[in-house]
Write a structure and sequence with these properties.
By secondary structure, this protein is of the alpha+beta class. The chain folds into two domains: about 200 residues, no CATH class; about 200 residues, no CATH class. Strand 3 and strand 4 form a beta hairpin. Helix 1 crosses helix 12, helix 10 packs antiparallel against helix 12 and helix 10 runs parallel beside helix 13. The two termini are about 30 Å apart.
Length: about 400
């Protein structure tokens, strides 16, 4: 066994009854353990929230979204769409026409984002996460139906059982010069009710999904589309499929994966996680001040031992190493306990949902957590850095003992 480590471990395991320094060392170890546990748990909660958001948005968004690089829409011929559908890895290609419109039900009305889609929009696990109440159908060309966000439905007071009241859509258009008839300033259409969906507030309060043919007629889009949504085949790499599509589309179009479609939100969560990590690391550093105090007091108490070791030929490097390793034993013992406790708490939350969100209508009943091994690595590195900073000064003081004075 390394000599400096052997002496440091003996100091740590000292069984003297009235040794306050050892009590302080154990308090420091507990402080590090609690701080490490809190750090792992909080970071895992942020991971869980990020994963939950991906899952919620993923049930509404496609794996890849193709949009025009410039402008709001683009021409989409049948042959061109077929060439994209035949790209390796493309399972479902959905045509989309999306724009704001006025939705009216009875005497109530609201501005919504009307999303016209082809029938295959409902394929490949759409709305698999969240709630869908009613028929998962968009009706037919003759009797089109809408899938309405829960927030929109609540605002309009839609009654699914009322088959006589219909949804009315109004979309503005450029009137002819000299036209005074207000009916020439908008297009309108009538929709039946299909179902309510609840995925995420952003979608629930704004989006209404309708058949593509209905949206094209009301908005006068013809062969134009605002976007194309691609579902990637199972087992295919999304980024590789994106590269194949990029080779065909060139720079005239943008292709976004799920994270890029909500880049601002994902970035905000990661920045918040970073600042929480920094804040808790500072708290962990404050808890580690006990290491500094216990080592400083140990260096004062053990001056005679240090003098004897120096007289026997010990170098300053050995003395310094003893105290640095003493601090490492305290910190890493606490960190190991904290890492294990943090992992166990997160595993229990994942398996049994111990801490509830307290919201009965929530998509998930308990706080989501996800354990990522890199969090353990960064936490361990933080403890290593804090330990070195807390131990170095007391270790340096211990080497300044006057051998003759303390023998």
């Amino acid at each position: 066994m390394n000599l400096s480590f052997f002496i440091a471990s003996r100091y740590f395991r000292s069984k003297k009854k009235r040794n306050f320094i050892n009590v302080l060392s154990w308090i420091a170890m507990v402080g590090v353990a609690v701080g490490t546990t809190a750090l792992i748990v909080v970071l895992s909660v942020f991971n869980g929230l990020e994963d939950l958001i991906r899952g919620l948005y993923g049930s509404f968004d496609a794996d890849l979204k193709i949009e025009a690089g410039l402008g709001k829409s683009f021409e989409a011929s049948e042959g061109w769409l077929d060439s994209l559908s035949n790209v390796e890895g493309v399972a479902v290609l959905t045509e989309v026409v999306e724009d704001n419109a006025l939705l009216k039900y009875g005497d109530d009305q609201i501005i919504v984002t009307m999303k016209g889609v082809t029938d295959n929009f409902l394929d490949d696990h759409r709305f698999s996460t969240g709630n869908l109440i009613g028929d998962k159908t968009l009706g037919t060309d003759l009797v089109p139906k809408a899938i309405v966000g829960r927030g929109v439905g609540y605002f309009l007071g839609i009654d699914p059982k009322n088959e006589f009241e219909k949804l009315r859509v109004y979309y503005p258009k450029a009137p002819r010069a000299g036209t005074l008839d207000p009916r020439q300033m908008y297009n309108s259409g009538i929709l039946g009710f299909g179902s309510f969906y609840s995925v995420e507030k952003k979608f629930d309060d704004n989006y209404v999904v309708v058949p593509l043919s209905f949206a094209v007629d009301v908005m006068d889009y013809g062969d134009k589309r605002t976007s194309l949504e691609v579902m990637v085949s199972e087992g295919q790499d999304v980024e590789k499929v994106k590269g194949r599509l990029r080779a065909i589309l060139g720079d005239a179009f943008t292709i976004k994966n799920k994270d890029e479609q909500h880049a601002g939100l994902i970035r905000a969560i990661r920045i918040e996680k970073l600042f929480v990590f920094i804040t808790l690391t500072f708290i962990l550093a404050v808890a580690s001040f006990n290491i500094f105090f216990s080592l400083s007091m140990l260096a004062i108490e053990k001056k005679k031992d240090i003098a004897v070791m120096l007289a026997m030929g010990a170098t300053e490097k050995l003395i310094r190493s003893i105290y640095v390793k003493q601090g490492a034993i305290i910190a890493f013992s606490g960190a190991l306990i904290g890492l294990v406790l943090g992992y166990l708490l997160c595993w229990l939350q994942q398996s049994f949902g111990l801490v509830s969100l307290g919201v009965s209508s929530s998509v998930v009943n308990s706080y989501p957590v996800e354990i990522i091994w890199t969090d353990f690595v960064w936490t361990s590195l933080s403890v290593l850095m804090i330990t070195f900073l807390a131990s170095y000064r007391p270790a340096t003081i211990a080497t300044k003992v006057n051998t003759i004075e303390h023998l």
